[in-house]
Design a protein that fits this description.
alpha+beta
Length: 416
């Protein structure tokens, strides 16, 4: 075995053998050699440790023919400040259910649409782990999150999530029990007795620091908007909870990915033209059965570059066409209208404000020698304060967010 960096001992030949045996449905598989290394750079992953493993194996002891496969192993160790949050949010249980049971069914419903990597194995011993086919070996790669995504990339996201949502609507007809059991918004899960409040603190402190930075360093920022943000702060989390847990019967519900930002997407490009051809999503660990406004507000707030933000309605039209075409193909009984989609976006619009304050700064934060983004850096009060001040002071962040805050003000999203 060849290894780089700090590799856990439990990432060994036995685990790989079990993974391939389960994924190939072949108990005779033999792992010969493997090479392992961290799969993500610092700041590209928060709730888990991810490793890439190139495995050379034989399909049985009777053959000398050596084959090769690249796997990605996602580990969610019960260590540090992440451990209690992973447990509270049921991150592992939710993601395992998605990859093992739900996504394969959604793919079948949507005419074998490629929504996610194949999961070869899931285990909680000795740590919570998921083993996937490496999408990099299928020529998928991550885009540059700091620059934002152009229209072509965003259009592909809208098409894909439209198909995903449509398939989930058919899935929900006979699997409502699964959706109710696993796919609530975990931060406000009423069945959890002792909440850590870690994520709540991240959201609340995000607004608090944004107010501070805007007041002290931003130039040409409307003082009326700043005053509204200050009044909003004491009820910010209450309004977020009311938005995300609202009950409604006048719209339609889908299974949301729940965390659609650039780091949770991989793209494939044409070898000839280099044009973007496909997108696949990763990290289904906070998927949520609710209004499609969750995914749409989140993605449209966090993904587009500056120029593409002026074409939001075009992207919504692309989403709707994909949703409608997929529902028609599977002969779904009630197809929502474009007006229904806009209604759901408006219903969950407060989540767009929260995304801009808490997620977009991470998306746009430039890596530096003095600060490395991490989950601990988000939770630790002193490190988080340092991080947010860097994020909110960025020139491009201000260029994008100031007009958005003006729109939020005009739409009365900042009102108490």
């Amino acid at each position: 075995m060849a290894a780089q960096g700090n590799i856990p001992e439990y990432l060994n030949k036995d685990l790989l053998t079990r993974s391939l045996a389960n994924g190939f449905h072949n108990e005779d598989v033999i792992v010969d050699t493997f090479e392992i290394a961290p799969a993500t750079a610092a700041g590209d992953n928060y709730m888990s440790d991810v490793f890439r493993i190139n495995v050379k194996y034989r399909s049985s002891s009777k053959t000398k023919n050596v084959e090769q496969i690249s796997l990605v192993i996602k580990c969610m160790p019960d260590a540090g400040q992440r451990g209690p949050v992973i447990e509270e949010l049921k991150v592992y249980e939710k993601e395992k259910e998605m990859f093992v049971n739900v996504i394969p069914e959604l793919s079948k419903i949507a005419n074998n649409e490629f929504f996610a990597a194949k999961c070869y194995y899931a285990t909680t011993s000795p740590e919570r782990m998921l083993v996937f086919h490496d999408l990099k070996s299928l020529n998928f790669t991550m885009a540059n999150r700091q620059t934002g995504l152009d229209f072509a990339h965003c259009a592909l996201i809208m098409k894909k999530i439209g198909k995903f949502h449509a398939a989930s609507m058919r899935f929900s007809e006979s699997n409502k029990d699964i959706l109710d059991k696993y796919f609530h918004f975990s931060m406000f899960n009423p069945s959890v007795e002792n909440h850590t409040d870690c994520i709540s603190v991240v959201f609340e402190n995000g607004l608090k620091t944004l107010i501070s930075v805007a007041e002290e360093t931003w130039t040409d920022f409307d003082p009326k908007i700043l005053a509204k943000m200050k009044k909003l702060l004491p009820v910010y989390l209450t309004k977020l909870k009311a938005c995300l847990t609202q009950e409604f019967d006048d719209g339609f519900k889908v299974l949301n990915h729940g965390d659609l930002w650039c780091n949770n997407m991989l793209f494939k490009y044409s070898k000839q033209s280099e044009a973007v051809e496909d997108v696949v999503f990763v990290d289904y660990q906070i998927s949520y059965y609710s209004s499609p406004g969750i995914d749409l507000n989140y993605a449209l707030s966090n993904c587009p570059d500056l120029e593409t933000r002026d074409r939001t309605n075009e992207l919504i039209d692309i989403y709707y066409s994909s949703l409608k075409d997929t529902l028609e193909a599977i002969q779904f009984s009630r197809i929502p209208t474009l007006a229904d989609v806009h209604h759901e976006i408006k219903r969950m619009e407060f989540f767009s404000l929260v995304s801009v304050i808490s997620i977009l700064p991470i998306v746009m934060m430039e890596k530096s020698d003095s600060f490395t983004p991490s989950f601990e850096a988000m939770i630790d009060e002193q490190m988080a304060e340092q991080s947010r001040k860097i994020q909110y002071s960025g020139k491009m962040f201000q260029k994008i967010v100031k007009p958005m805050l003006t729109r939020f003000y005009d739409r009365k999203l900042l009102d108490v």
